[in-house]
Every structure is written in structure tokens, then in C-alpha cells.
Amino acid sequence: MSTPAALTNLLDFDRDSLRQWFVAHGHSAFRGDQLLKWIYHQQVTDFAAMTNLGKDLRDWLQVNAVVAPPQIVSEQQSTDGTVKWLFDVGTGNAIETVFIPEPSRGTLCVSSQVGCALNCSFCATGAQGFNRNLSTAEIIGQVWQAANRLGHQRNGTRRITNIVMMGMGEPLLNMSALLPALRLMCEDLAFGLAGRRVTVSTAGLVPAIDTLADSVDVSLAVSLHAADDDLRNELVPLNRKYPTAQLLDACARYSRGRVKRTVTYEYTMIDGVNDQIQHARKLITLLRRVPGKINLIPFNPFPGTRYRCSSETAIAKFQQQLMAADFIATVRRTRGQDIDAACGQLAGDFMDRTSRRQRIQMQVAV
Ligand code: SF4
Exposed end of the chain (fewer CB within 10 Å): N or C? Predict the structure, then answer.
């Protein structure tokens, strides 16, 4: 839902900035904390219902502010319990958010941009082009809406235990909106998740990894997909700007001083492209320097792709090779494939206003 220009959307603020906003308008900073609890703990968006605020303040909020998450266009449920929402983000654009329930946890996969400019060759989102960055309200609003729909916290049950910034877009290309949203995910007065349960995934924006490390204490996942530069240039074109050696250095800096914060390396298994034993050996050699957990992701096909998923045998052999070298290597179980909610399948519904030439310029500029 778009916010009328005169109204301030309070979902755009993290705790500090909300407190400052109240002070700037002549109110106590503590009002910001009260508002956070109403919005995120009680899921209340109507100021009139916020009964511990004085009548004058409630009336003032009614004419100056709004709590406006993006509106749900559709909700689909997979046979395996996975839920996918399509959100309206205005001017004919929509983004996708996915909830993946498991016996011991519930993971919410959140989008950061409408489309993506990085054009990874195995990704449905990249194939669609880029439209715009999401605002903080649109990022945290996905979590708010999912929590509302899932009854998160109802009867004391936390349905969302983990959040991964792995939906549509490259989160680190939208840092100014991302950081307040990450703080709200970890803020006790909002969603209150431990930093290790909030993961930012990046295709490898080296300077932005350092900025993230200096700004918040969350987990990092890197979309690696290849261990040598020639192949990675093809799969993740951003590699031409930040080659694997630079990327691994940034991962080492990120892990330094963070207890239990090893980097997760995402590796999509593509038949005949990166799934042979020699690829596993190169990966072992590369990651000896900066160890981390390796997550093997069976490639999820989408219309128009030239790739196919590796066979189960090839994936098992690859995994065994990594484990024999003492790496923790897991195979991500494909979830929500029947509703196109699996990894790399999120395409949303948006108008690409970025030509291929502009996209390449954006890659070079980052
Ligand atoms: S894999 Fe991530 S960074 Fe690459 S195109 Fe897809 S959304 Fe963008």
C-alpha cells in the first residue's frame, strides 16, 4: 500500500530513529518504544487502539503517521506446507516472500529489491531484470504480514524462528533500507531474533560486506556456486568486479571476532556445469583458507533456463567429497516447488524498466 505523502510510515523506522522522530516532534523518546511494542508485539496498526497512549497523542498520530505494510495480493500454500505471498509494492510491481516450516524451525525468506540487476545466469529473478529498491517499510512489512498471517507469537508460539534475506534482489545493493530492517528483526521490542538467526545472502559485494560487518551482528551467506573465476564469471557476473580471492578475504574479515559466525557458502548444483568431482576439489582448495558451512542447493528450473538440476547421484558424490575433506556440507531440501517458491524461482511480477546495458552499468558501478 502506498503511503500518502504527508503521512510518515512508522515501519520505516528502527528503534533509534523512531525515538528520534518522536523527540523531533516534541514527544518523549519513550513513545517510540511503546509504538514498537504495539506494532510488532501486538500487531496493532490502528493508533486509536493503542490504549496506553494519551488521547492527544493518538489523535496527532492519526493525522501525521501510518503503519502501512505492503498489501498481500495472493497467498499460496504448497503441499509440503511452504507458503508464498505475493505483495503489491505499487505501480504494477509485486514481490514475493516465502515461509518454509520445518519440525524444529520456521524460516522466512524475504525480498530486498523489486527484481535484481546482477543477472546471475541460474536465477529466475535475475532473468527478469531490475525495477527498484524496496523501502525499510516494504522489507520489514513482509515480516510483519507473514507474522500476522501465520499467527506468530499467538499462544506463545514463535512460528518465524529464522529470517533469510534470500528472496528477490541483492540485499547489499539496498543497504540504507536493509540495515534498519535487520535491526528490527533483532530488536527485542520488535521481532527479537538472535543475530545468528538472521542471515543476509550476497552475490559478493566486497565493500558492502565490510559495511555490513561494521553495522549489525547478523549471519552472512555467500552465493558462491563456483570455485574458479572463469566459471564464476559465467554464473555470477559480479565476480568480474570482485573475484573469488577478494570475496574470500571479505568473508574472513566478516567472521573475525564473531563467535559462531562462520560464513555459509551457497552452491547451486547445475548438471554438467559445476557438479563434477574436479569442481568439488577446487572448492575444497579454495575454502581451506576461509572455512565455513557449504550448502548445496539442487538447481530449481524456471521457464527459459538453459540449465538442469544435477542428478541425486552427482549431488551425493559432491557432498561426500566435501565431507571427506572435513567440511560441513548439507544438501538443501527443495521446498515449495509446486508453487514456484523454491530457491532461485522467485520472479514476482514487475515491470523491468532497466535495459540490459543499464544493468551492466549498474554492476560495474557497484
Ligand atoms: S541469485 Fe541473487 S544476486 Fe543473483 S540475480 Fe538472483 S537475486 Fe540477484
Answer: N
Please give the pLDDT value at position 41. 95
Among residues 174, 180, 233, 172, the alpha carbon closest in space to that of 208 is found at 172
Nearest Cα neighbor of 203 from 318, 113, 317, 98 is 113
301 pLDDT band, cuts 50/70/90, is confident
Q: Which of 18, 49, 66 marks a domain boundary? A: 66
State which of 42, 66, 90 marks the end of a domain.
66
Structural domain boundaries, residue 346: 71-365
Q: Is residue 119 included in any domain, yes or no?
A: yes
Q: For the chain, what is the domain count?
A: 2
Q: Indicate which atom in ligand 1 lies nearest the CA of residue 113.
A: 7
Record the cell numbers describing residue 67, joined without a space.
Answer: 503503519
CA of 362 to the centre of ligand 1 (A): 14
Give the amino acid at 170: E
109 has catalytic annotation: no
The question of whether 96 is a catalytic residue gets the answer: yes
- Which pLDDT score, from 0 to 100, does residue 346 have? 63
The model's pLDDT over 16-34, given as tens digits with 9 standing for 90+, comes to 999 999 999 999 999 999 9
